[in-house]
Each structure stands twice: as C-alpha cells, then as structure tokens.
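User: Can you recover a sequence for this backbone? Please restate the input before giving your answer.

Assistant: Of course. Working from this structure:
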C-alpha cells in the first residue's frame, strides 16, 4: 500500500510538474465568439464579400426552413396512422433523411462562403417562415397538406435564390440550389401529393 502511494506520487510529479503537461481536461470559457453570426470571414474563392454575404444569408434562410421541414417529416413519421401507416411511415422517414442531407449541403455551402451556418434548431425556429404544427397529432391528409405547404415555402425561396445567385455569378450556390435542393423538393412533392388523390383501388 505504501509503495503504491509512493509510485503514484512519483508519476504525478513526473507528468504534472516535470514537463508542464497535465492529463486534466482544459475547459474553455464559454460565450466568446471567434466569428459573430452576422460577419463574414475572408476566403479566396473569387467572389466579393458582398456577394458571399448575400448568398450566405439566403442560404441560411433556406437552411433554417430545411431544418424545420426535416423535423416535421420526423414528427409525421412517428404520428402517422391509418390504413396507409406503413408506407407513409417509411416514406416520411426517407424524405426526412434526404432533407437532413440537404441541411448538411446548405450548411457547408454557407461555411464555404465564409459565413456561419445556422446550427441550433432554436436559431432555425427564429428564422423559419414555416408555420408551426400543433404539438399533437393531425390526420394523414392534414399532415401531407402541411408538408406540401412547407415544401412550397422553401421552393419559392429556392427559385428566388437561383435568380439571385445567377445575377451575382455565385455558381457554386446556384448549382447547389438548382441541382440538389430544387429537384429534391420537386420529387418529394410529387411523391406525397399523390397520396391526396382520391382514387379507388378497384372499380365499384
Ligand atoms: Fe423511425
């Protein structure tokens, strides 16, 4: 027992005081921002700061809405009920995963421009223009209608963003909005809108 204590003291002396290193975590002081949300950092991608800031702002608005749409798909994935439960349960989850991919693409584009991507869902909730769903469960037609309205809100901003980034020649953001975001939304709208069509499975 005595020799164990001696060994421990020796190693503490060697590791802690002998060379100035410590195994203890060095916790940081919180709340100091390296870069404020409203400021851009300089990156050499051949675009003026004003262009990068304009694109980052519009992309962050779409990112905030996309974060909310992702959560809305998960909410409906959990709350869906009725005869179409299984297929919609799976479809809503697939769309949620695809929206999560768009969240990452949009966020990393904002960072590539020198901006700060909206990350905290509570920050996204402050910026989004998508109406908040009730905390309880809605029926399937209301769930799908709500999703379609959210898609249309985002698609409108994406179309505006495509025009803006074309004028400013921010082709990276333009390509992302047209090739990844717009097409994914249009496809998802088709897949869920068809569930609102009242067509019998067989002839009467
Ligand atoms: Fe699940």
């Amino acid at each position: 027992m005595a020799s164990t204590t001696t060994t421990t003291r020796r190693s503490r002396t060697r590791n802690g005081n002998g060379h100035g290193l410590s195994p203890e975590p060095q916790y940081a002081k919180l709340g100091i921002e390296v870069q404020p949300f409203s400021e851009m950092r300089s990156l050499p991608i051949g675009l003026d700061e004003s262009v990068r800031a304009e694109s980052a702002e519009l992309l962050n608005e779409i990112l905030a809405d996309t974060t909310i749409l992702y959560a809305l798909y998960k909410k409906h994935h959990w709350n869906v009920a009725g005869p179409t439960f299984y297929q919609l349960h799976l479809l809503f989850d697939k769309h949620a995963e695809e929206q999560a991919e768009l969240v990452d693409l949009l966020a990393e584009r904002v960072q590539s421009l020198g901006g700060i991507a909206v990350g905290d869902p509570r920050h996204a909730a402050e910026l989004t223009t998508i109406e908040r769903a009730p905390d309880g469960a809605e029926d399937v037609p209301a769930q799908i209608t709500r999703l379609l309205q959210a898609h249309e809100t985002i698609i409108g901003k994406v179309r505006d963003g495509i025009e803006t980034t074309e004028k400013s020649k921010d082709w990276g953001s333009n390509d992302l909005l047209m090739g990844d975001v717009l097409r994914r939304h249009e496809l998802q709208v088709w897949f869920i809108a068809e569930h609102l069509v009242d067509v019998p499975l067989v002839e009467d």
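That completes the design. Residues 43 and 168 are 17 Å apart (CA to CA).
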